[in-house]
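User: As part of a screening pipeline, I want to sanity-check one entry by hand. Below is the sequence and the SMILES for NAP. Please return the complex as structure tokens so I can compare it with the automated output.
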Amino acid sequence: MSRKFNALLINNENEKFTREIKELDTSSLKDGNVLVKIEYSSLNYKDALILNNGGKIIKNYPFVPGIDFSGVVEDSQDEKFKKNDKVILTGFRVGEMYYGGFSQYAKVNSDFLVKLPKDLTSHKAMMMGTAGLTALLCAFAVKAKEELLMGNKVKDVLVTGATGGVGSFAVMALSKMGYDVHAATGKKDKVEYLKKLGAKNILDRKDFLGESRLLEKGLWDCVVDTVGGEALTKILAQTKPGGIVALPGNAGGNKILTNVMPFVVRGIKLWGIDSSGASVKRKEFVWNEASKLIDFSIIQNSIKEVSLKELIDVFPKILKGQLTGRVVVNPNI
Ligand SMILES: NC(=O)c1ccc[n+]([C@@H]2O[C@H](COP(=O)([O-])OP(=O)(O)OC[C@H]3O[C@@H](n4cnc5c(N)ncnc54)[C@H](OP(=O)(O)O)[C@@H]3O)[C@@H](O)[C@H]2O)c1
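Assistant: Here is the complex for your manual check:
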């Protein structure tokens, strides 16, 4: 039985981009084999780029963005999922190639879905969203130094872009794992916020810019760098032998300049993080660890909940760096 529902559609007519809430019918959703009634989605940096002008990602218009969502299965053609199962979706090009989460319904491939762990709610899942999942993938990359690679115990971990979505969750998860987190930020007024998340020490992001020697004094056992760009030169040179630098982001630029010494003299590993394409098995593992590593009562204070209509006004802020904390999208208000 088909149902009418609301979705945020973007359109592009001769490079003039528009956004509006429109009524669609579930019979028009052609991709995938599981129909999900969406409870929450969230705003990520990539969503904002897409909402702005397609972000050079969207090929076919009109289009429903939203790279993540949580909700309830309404109809499934795969026996892995039954009606009323609670599910989470992140990545796999949903919201980029397939209609996404800024909508009351989505139809997706069952291979993209993760069952919501019993100790999470749909709302908590999207408080984290892609940013939180990415942060946990980074935190487990750090942990791999002492577990998978059997290296020395990790003590000091640097997190850059610490007040951002990925950075905030990384600070919290790494401090819950027992590490001393050094949070680099450009926001002097967010020291208390970062300490509440578990940061031991706050650094100015400017300290990582400028000239770097091939190798500098080793300061960090591991790093989560959500910024990339110029700062990575010094960060790699300051990482201690055997250290892992997890790199999920490019908020500070796409180009990096480095040299071979951190890699061949200190055996440092630069570990790229792509949350979108991470296997469902790995996503399931990480989501099932989330409630142990995230204190939602602390995160709650920095969550803003918006309707689809309000999202249209809010998204430009993330592009201007004016947003602290996360935006949860409720398509049903
Ligand atoms: N690989 C993946 O799977 C994946 C998944 C999600 C996100 N990402 C990427 O990860 C990055 C962070 O995402 P997010 O959701 O956390 O974004 P966000 O909420 O906008 O946070 C980015 C943070 O980086 C810092 N920053 C921003 N512009 C900067 C600049 N020009 N130079 C230095 N620092 C700057 C700011 O933190 P401070 O003011 O505290 O320094 C900002 O809060 C983005 O590049 C995003 O595209 C990747």
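Points to compare against the pipeline: The mean pLDDT is 96. The pocket of NAP is lined by residues 44-46, 130-131, 134, 161-167, 185-187, 205, 226-227, 248-252, 273-276, 318, 321 (CB under 6 Å).
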